[in-house]
Write a structure and sequence with these properties.
Helices cover 0% and strands 55% of the residues. The protein has strands spanning 3-7, 10-13, 18-25, 33-39, 46-50, 54-55, 63-68, 73-78, 87-94, 96-98, 101-103, 107-108, 112-117. β10 (96-98) and β11 (101-103) form a beta hairpin. 32% of the residues are buried. The model has no long low-confidence stretch (mean pLDDT 96).
Length: 118
Amino acid sequence: QEQLEESGGGLVQAGGSLRLTCAVSGRTFNSYVMGWFRQAPGKEREFVAGETTYYADSVKGRFTISRDNAKNTVYLQMNSLKPEDTAVYYCAAAARCSAYRCTGIRYWGRGTQVTVSS
């Protein structure tokens, strides 16, 4: 069974950058397509980014998803952050990602808080 653990969240001013990391334990990391989601207070969890190059419209041009297979790790580089990016960010191991969604999600991480101040 895979375990996913996010890190790298924190408090940043608008316009700043953060890089989130999702470390995946287990032996089948290469079997999954990875995605990032977020959930703001009072809102539903929403798709942010999925491999290889799928992004929500709200983050296109600002966020980049990448993977290091040697480290069993996936990253989310977030630039030009806005207050509306404030949320708990989750990584997920999925069967497939496409425009605006990932399907067949098998595992979730516990999330990391990102807070962007204005």
